[in-house]
Amino acid sequence: MAEREDPPDASNGPAGPDAREGRGAVAVLDGRGLVVEWSRAAERLLGVDRSQIVGRPVTDLLTLIDAEALSEGVTVGPVYDGGKVTAGRWGLWPAGPLPGGIRSGVLEAVFTQSPVGLHVVDADLRVLRVNSAGVGMRGVPEREILGRPFLEVYERFTPQPIERTLRQVLATGIPVFDRRAAGYPRADPSREHIFSVSIFRLEDDAGRPLGLVASAVDVTARERARDRLAVLHLAHERMGLLLDPVRCARELARAVVPLLADTATVALTAPPLHGPDADLPPPPDEPLRCVAVWPPDAGEAPEVGAEVCPEDPGRAVPYTDEQAAGGPTLVAPIVLRGVLHGVARFSRPNRPDPFEDDDLRLAADLVSHTAVCVDNARRYEHSHAVALALQGNLLRAGRTGSSTLETAHRYLPTGLGTGAWFDVIPLSGSRVALTVGHITGFGPDATAAMVQLRSAVQALAALDLDPHDLLARLDDVTRRLDEERSAAGTEEPLTAQCVYAVHDPVTETCAIARAGRQTVLVGHPDGTWRTHPLEETTALGEEGPPFAAEEIPLPAGSTLVLLSGHATPDAPPLADLRTHLTGVRSLLTVAALDALPADQAAVLVARTLPLDPADVADWDIGPELSSVAEARRRALRQLDDWGLTEETAFSVELVVSELVTNAIRHGTPPIRLRLIRNPADSTVTCEISDTGAAAPQLRRARAADEGGRGLFISGELSDRWGVRWLDEGKTVWSEISYTT
Question: What is the three-class DSSP state of 530?
Answer without folding.
Answer: strand
